[in-house]
Amino acid sequence: MIFTFVPTIPQKPPLAIRNNHLYTAHRPQIHVNPEAQWWAFQRDATTLKEDNCQRRILQCPQRRASQADCGLPPHESRRIFSVRQQQDILSRCAAIRAEPGPPADFLVGRDKSDRFEPGTNATLIRNANIFTGENNGTVVFRGDVLLDKGIIRAIGDIPGRVIENTPNLTTVEANGAWVTPGLVDMHSHLGVVSTPVMGGAIDVDSEKGPILPWLRSVDGLNTHDEGYQLAMAGGVTTVQVLPGSNNAIGGQSFFVKLRPTSERSAIAMIVDPPNSLTGDSGWTAPNRWRHMKQACGENLRRYGNRMDTMWSFRSAYNEAKNIKAAQDLYCERAEAGLWDTLDYVFPESLKWEMLVDVLRGKVKISNHCYEAVDLDALVRLSNEFKFNIASIHHAAEAWLVPDVLKRMWGGIPTVALFATTYRFKRESYRGSEYAPRVLADEGIPVVMKSDHPVLNSRYLVYEAQQAHYFGLPQNLALASVTSTPATAAGLSHRIGVLQKGADADVVLWDSHPLQFGATPVKVWIDGILQIPVPAKDGQNVPVEVGKGKEGDRWRRVPSVPNWDKEREEALKWDGLPPLKGRSQADRITFTNVKKVWKRTHEGNVEEFGNEDGSSGFAGNVVVLNGKIACIGKTCPNHADGGKMIDLKGGSISPGLMSYGSPLGLGEIMGEPSTLDGEIPDAMAGKVPKLLDDAGGLVRAMDALVFQTRDALTAYRSGVTFATSSLAKPINLGGPSPRFLSGLSVAFRTGASHAMEQGAIVQDVVALHVTLGRTSPIAPYGTSVSTQLAALRRLLYGWESRDKETGYWFRKAAEGVIPLVIEVDSADIMASLLIMKADVEDRIGSRMRMVFSGAAEAHLLAHEISTSQVGVILNPARPYPSVWDQRRILPGPPLTNDTALVALLNEGVIVGLGIRNSWEARHARYDANWASLESNGRIKEHQAYALVTTDLENLLGVRDIDGETADLVATEGGSIFDQSSKVVGVISPKRGFVDIF
């Protein structure tokens, strides 16, 4: 309830007011507090009269103008306040005007953290390369870091007496390794979308209306989320836990540290909890920043369109403005000594107090927003009600309208971005990998974030690495996951910056943090070691981290390509530049080629050697009509009428293959109007009679769409082939997938249409089935036992062979085509291995079974190998999103082995896959990362095989050999190097070279 100066309230407000809804939609709606609306209506009618009266009262207190003099309703009786009451009111009035943030001397003399756990040893990190995060990440030096009592006691050149006077000291020798602040993920749903995801543990969105500033994410924070430890294994120490984006105002958010506390409560995880949360009613308590989530755009469709959204914002902030005005007037009277004009109760509302604090500048708003139209509307809203939005998240089109952001009331917002996660829905379609650099050039602070579990928070630093790869300066790239988000949140006095007195959240890395594959060796939060994970039984199993990265090059900032031309082109085309290459059918000479990798007749990928048998050379490669005519130092180094391209120490290697996503089966995965649509659900009996087939088996080839932006982006990244099926894994989002997922197709990602020569590599590749427990979002799917029974029946041949389903399952049972099963649970895999043996015994032939997804395959590595079953790890770096995936093998720094290493050690043939179309471009880095985290056990030629020959063999893709396979030319390094970029694709099958 909102208390006002009007002594009585009618039983019902006027009809016009009662019908003034907070928002308009076609669903059940939430109304504004009618008393608040009536008060606002009454106040509007008397504003001028009351203001004139109060001006006379304040200007001439001794005159004691009365309420009646102004024609306002008289108070029931004279108010009498005690001295203590008066002091409390005046203190409260001072507090609501006080600026939030730490005291100016917060770091001065701070000798102990409020989060310090008694019994924690001090730690001295010696001889490190230290990135402090200060001054936009420009402060870097060699020195030591002393952690004691939960804070950074000293940093840099630490006097010996300080070290000698520190008891219980543990020393860690860095030997020149990099030390950074703990990473800060500014956009996460850790704890409110817990791992593994279950319907009862999803507390991210509310369906109670579009405006919900009174909700708090901490009220749904699961203290047992398995994602916390995985995130810490990536160097993440603090995350902002945000409500979801299906509400215009989703509620209050909180920054939490990920270490388990001795109290084991949710509130004990929060950094600088505000007074509103702790229940501290003392008006002299620290005035800490509060945080809140807002959203706009497509996600709010359940409550209406964009116009409805903005009206809901304006209505809500108008309520807050009225309350704030009432409070300000109350305080003006109190400070003028007009106690007899005051009510005993301070004017406030439990529901709207958060928005009042927004208007008072006490809240850091994180706003989900993608498109220019929404960004413009937000900026206008901020200027109308005079409040600042601290950060805008996702912001796919922010880089196209930086001047709009600069008009934000109260200052330029920080923009929190994905590196390359775009085009998955309509409003993200114009997002770009060049956005971080463009925004930085405009003076707009840039943050990289995960939106966990959209991206695995463990690989937050990978977002910064990609941003640097595409042009964001090194200091800003590393600051984007440390000091920049901490500053935007008003918490840089505690986290995100290594400085004396700050919280002791520190990461020691095995290589420079911007190197792809960089892995934390040790992670401290509040000075307490979290990685390596302390063993509960007192016996640690040492985890080896960084083997193979001992050279100096791993300690240096990685060199990256120049993308100036591409960035300017993207801006010129308003975010949608042409992606198809310029085809050249005549002579092309590549010079300064360092390496050439070719396919052998045996189906392997090997490095081409010199005439003397040595590998590697600095020579030329001549291509005529898409075919290599000469390789070596003796090849002519002139164009001879053709085009010359200097690879600057680059390489030529086979094009890579992508598998696992719906690449080529639609343009925008979140926009049904651009997709194939839902395939028949045979388990639910929903197969159209017209198909005359119990299974309703369909072919992915019939749904192919060429020249999608994801396919062309993959093509320009060296992924020249893709195998796509209609299979959908059981995962967090969407309905449970179909059991029968049809027949996959292999195609060229750079082709113009299906009729182009070589566009379709193979029209039918494999038969696909999805097996698993039901989705946590859409329960009551088909049981696992029913799925297995159906598969057994189909493989036994009980379905007529004159139908599509019976025909292709017979082919799969006989081993003519692979049977690719999307499955993650080791228990279901075991049942499938038993079934495979049974079917083979009945049929008398060997099946070609492949497990895709395969999160728990390492638990059955020996049995899978013995059964001659292949595995496609999808995704390449696993995350236990759902129950069937909970027993992953995460790899260093948590385990010595990865699932890939465990399977390869048993002789299993393994390929790597992806889940989403936008990820296809990363095949080369997925393979490289797999090699790096193997601690040197996977060599370069094996990395190639994971995304070329082995993947093709598993899927049954034929006819890709040295004569028909595309080759990729990279400038500045090999296809796996961070310094390289793809500049061309050599296509013998199509007879030309695409130049980018």
TrEMBL record:
<feature type="domain" description="Amidohydrolase 3">
    <location>
        <begin position="475"/>
        <end position="527"/>
    </location>
</feature>
<dbReference type="InterPro" id="IPR051781">
    <property type="entry name" value="Metallo-dep_Hydrolase"/>
</dbReference>
<dbReference type="GO" id="GO:0016810">
    <property type="term" value="F:hydrolase activity, acting on carbon-nitrogen (but not peptide) bonds"/>
</dbReference>
<dbReference type="InterPro" id="IPR011059">
    <property type="entry name" value="Metal-dep_hydrolase_composite"/>
</dbReference>
<dbReference type="InterPro" id="IPR032466">
    <property type="entry name" value="Metal_Hydrolase"/>
</dbReference>
<protein>
    <recommendedName>
        <fullName>Amidohydrolase 3 domain-containing protein</fullName>
    </recommendedName>
</protein>
<dbReference type="InterPro" id="IPR013108">
    <property type="entry name" value="Amidohydro_3"/>
</dbReference>
<dbReference type="Pfam" id="PF07969">
    <property type="entry name" value="Amidohydro_3"/>
</dbReference>
